[in-house]
Each structure stands twice: as C-alpha cells, then as structure tokens.
Amino acid sequence: MKPVRRVGLFGGTFDPIHMGHVEIVQAALSNTLYDLDKLIVMPCKLSPHKRDGQGPTEGRHRLQMIGIALREVKAVEISDYELSKESVSYTWQTIHWLQDQYPAAELVLVIGYDQYRVLDQWARFEELKDKIQCLVFSRHGQTKELSVERYTGLNLIFAEEQVVGISASEIRKYLRMGIEDDILAAELIHPKVIDYIQAQGLYSPH
By C-alpha distance, which of 147, 188, 149, 180 is closest to 21? Predict the structure, then answer.
C-alpha cells in the first residue's frame, strides 16, 4: 500500500455542504502542486467562531449530506471525530489527533479565505505554525488583502483556483424563504443533497 505522505484536513460546519465546498475538495485533490494523498473532511460539532445562539443542524444529517455530495470524489475520508466530542471543536486539538493517526505525514489545513483572515484569532494559533501547512481558497470576485506579515512562520499556499461565491448561511436563508429548489440544485447544492434536505425536512421555512 502506498504510504500516506501528505494529509489534508478540511473542516467546517457544512450546514449544508454546498458547491463551493465541493469545488475546494476537488481542486485540493486534483492539483498536483498541493500533492495531497488524502483529504479528511471533518464537520465540527460547534465552531467556537459561530456562537450566534442557534446551533448547527444535527451532526448525523451533516455527515449524510457530505457523504452524498462527495460520493464520487476519490481520496476523501469523512470523519466524525469532532462530532463525537462533547464540547466546542478546536483545530489545535484535531491537529494533535491527526498527528497521532499519521505520525510520518505532513499535515495541510485547507481553509477558505474568510477563515484565513481571522486565523490569528484561533485558539493556540501560534502552536499550529510548526505543525501544519495552510492551503487557502478564495471565492470568485473576493477581494484578497494578503496580510501575510501577521502569519510569519506559517507555511502558506494560496490556491490557484477560486470557488463559487456562496456561503452556507446564505443557502439556509434561501431555503427558509422558499427560493425555488431547482435554482439551488443547479447552482449551489448537489441535486441529491437537495433531495436529502427535502426528505428530512431540513431548513424548512419558519
């Protein structure tokens, strides 16, 4: 079996997973410059940066939607590690866990540009610098202000590819407003994920 040399971690709430997420996964794995042997997609139980009084959709549903959207993508592993934790998800804890799982591999943290802009606000950020490389993706039309000086010592790669300009919060708003499902299915969410959302009654208008 081929040894795993470089492992990517792509975390987030994925509530729901959308085509921007899918494009990041596909680009991270297909571009030989990033040289990933595996990409672990890991939904969090509760992000420390998203405490707005409303918790995310139940973890089992988010896992199912991720599995549906990424079913055809090779070299992806979907992990429930953070969902199984009892508390808020912190990336530094997950990185320590991954180091135990892949002691000989380089770890690459795959993030969006919005996360990159606040990376130095993450818990124990300084501790991450010598443990990971960061692969940063931006959205189409997103203005990038690369404040790399704030991250001196962190190994950064800015992805060549840009992804669809949409957020999960916008999608939830559209769904709750009853925006036409065919528009969402065609442009923003995998059609089979839309089917799952409808079957489970997720994001229904309130």
Answer: 188
